[in-house]
Amino acid sequence: MTRIYILCFLICILEHTQAQTITLKEKSMVTDKEINISISGGSRRDLATLVRPVLTTIYRRDVNGLGLHNPCVYDIMIEYGMKYDVVPEGQRISERKFSKHNRRANWKLFWRNGFFWKSKMHKKMKKCRIASGEQDLEGE
Length: 140
Hints:
This protein is of the alpha+beta class. It has five helices and four strands; from the N terminus they run H-E-E-H-E-H-E-H-H.
């Protein structure tokens, strides 16, 4: 009887130690192309650390003063579950599609982060830029 328990235990251990694969699907709102990314690793827990959180994208034409190249600012945006995506002036995208996407993204982020999420986030981003010496105390 104990041999059966030991055999079942070993089968369970071997089953969970096999390599697993996760396939991520992302769709770009600008190009409407779907991208498949396959990640394989040792266990689901290891793969969960590799999978980045789904970030809601807000399109901006002008990002002056946001300091998006600062790693601290980027970490704050990930904390709030969003990122800014720069759309160049020459790129053809209808204003209706542009504003409709941003309206939906802001609505989704409102339900995720609560009231005044954008002002709280920008306040944290400003403190981060001041701490890194990128911005003076009076502001830009």
